[in-house]
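Ops channel
N.P.: pipeline sanity check, posting one input/output pair.
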């Protein structure tokens, strides 16, 4: 694993956000970054100018990480997801709380600490929410959003979008509902507006459209 270049926390935060938005398959524009980070569009505009000057992004008009920017983002995302795994498995913090704690840890983990965290766990491939740890060699199964399930279909929850992780209340709901990676999810019904009623390990749970589009289930091979 390679170390992170020396940049301020703000540069790292924005590089991480761009990576995560790209990971969701969403075109990266300034308005989307503002929504993702919960900051003003003016703040994003100013930061994009600074990142462009540092050679971390290009903007034409869609924002893309340069090789240097991608390296920075990869290190931060890796350490964030590794920290989530460590906090959850080793320190046994509540599953729905580790994202916020990892946001603090990710900027302070050194190369030596990262190596020690890897050694303390059994070769983790994903964070506790199913998102891949960069550099871990994770090969994801074929997936689709829960929103695309057919009525009566029974599949395993594989991944929770980083976008849902940003919402502590949502993560609490998912935790209480048993909607964690590995849960068996059966679609019972879909209402006219797209909201779902699912059985999670046999328990009936209502899932709104926003969450259903950001919860990913593994598709069984035909």
């Amino acid at each position: 694993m390679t170390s992170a270049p020396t940049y301020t926390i703000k540069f790292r935060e924005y590089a991480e956000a761009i990576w995560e938005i790209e990971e969701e398959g969403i075109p990266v524009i300034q308005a989307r970054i503002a929504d993702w980070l919960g900051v003003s569009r003016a703040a994003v505009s100013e930061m994009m100018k600074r990142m462009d000057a540092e050679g971390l992004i290009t903007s034409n008009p869609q924002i893309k990480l340069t090789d240097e920017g991608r390296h920075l983002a990869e290190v931060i995302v890796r350490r964030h997801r590794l920290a989530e795994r460590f906090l959850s498995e080793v320190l046994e913090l509540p599953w729905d709380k580790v994202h916020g704690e990892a946001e603090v840890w990710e900027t302070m983990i050194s190369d030596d600490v990262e190596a020690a965290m890897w050694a303390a766990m059994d070769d983790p491939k994903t964070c506790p929410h199913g998102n891949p740890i960069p550099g871990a060699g994770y090969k994801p199964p074929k997936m689709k959003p829960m929103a695309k399930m057919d009525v009566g279909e029974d599949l395993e929850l594989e991944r929770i979008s980083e976008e849902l992780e940003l919402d502590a209340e949502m993560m609490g709901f998912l935790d209480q509902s048993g909607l964690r990676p590995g849960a068996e999810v059966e679609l019972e019904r879909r209402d006219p507006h797209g909201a779902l009623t699912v059985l999670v390990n046999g328990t009936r749970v209502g899932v709104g459209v926003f969450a259903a589009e950001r919860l990913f289930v593994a598709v069984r091979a035909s």
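N.P.: looks fine end to end. The longest helix spans residues 67-89.
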